[in-house]
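Workshop exercise sheet. Pairs work together: one partner reads the sequence aloud, the other fills in the structure field after running the prediction. Swap roles for the next sheet.
Pair: D.N. / O.F.
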Amino acid sequence: MASDRVRYRGLANGPQGGLCEGDDQTDQSAEEWWKETSASVRDERFTPIAARARAVWSQLRLQSNVDLGGVVLEGTAGRRRVALQVTVDSTPAEALGVMSQGELHSLALSLFLPRATLAESPFRFICIDDPVQSMDPARAEGLPRVLAQAALTAGHRIHARRSLPEAVRRLGLPATVHSVTRRAKSVVEVRQTTDPVTTLIDDARAVAMTDDLPTDVASRVVPGFCRAADEAACMESVRRRRLKRGDSHDSVEQMLEANGKMYPLIALALFDDASRTNDVLPKLQRFGPWAVEAFKICKMGAHERHEGELKSLINNSERLAKQLLEMK
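Structure field:
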């Protein structure tokens, strides 16, 4: 505020100032001039923030028919507010009346990030708790781009919780991902993670190498981890392929949800066709007998105890997952 007062004083005493020493103006006219000048300076300072808010919204509004036009400050003193000029299919509308919960969260982020990343801010980090709450997959895909841009251009460290790592990996954005797990007796474990397949395979190896774990338990738990790793590879392969060719996020997620069992899921990954379950084993046989064996064991998951060598199962499951991830 001190710098603003200096600026106002300069405007007042300058050649274009509304008040100069010796002017015979009333206190009322002086007050009006002050309000007009304050509003002008405020609008000038807010203009780049509003422009950035619209730019962020344009990245988050993927597959939405709601467009954000003007972002204007209205009111005075303690009754100021932000007015949002929203259109739906080019028709003016009230933001709160037409936006979904996910769109409102996206809009809130659009207004928050430009202010939080101002050069004048003394803080060089941003913490966001569960930013994709209620967002549909399309907006959840745009959010990592927005956060990455804020981190790179404004030099801020972005700390965001939940649901972002998958999109970050698929988009190839620079990020460090940590998983936080609460163990027994409130012991908190923090570890850096890479991708679901690697994490699940590492967990399978950790279980298999635990000396004091009963063999019967390990032989049931490890196949479950291996199955989850191969399923994660299938879903990643399908998402990448389908989104790249232009399918909507909603349609991809609905398709994956409808084909959650092992056979149709791997058929989607191998052939892009969930109905070709009869072709799965012949296709895996081309990879090698190890792939067929790993698939059959993983399909049983934790339903049956695996009598074979756990190390071999883990290695073959990891190998199969890599093959699935490479499917075009």
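Discussion prompt: The CA atoms of residues 224 and 301 lie 4 Å apart. What would you look at next?
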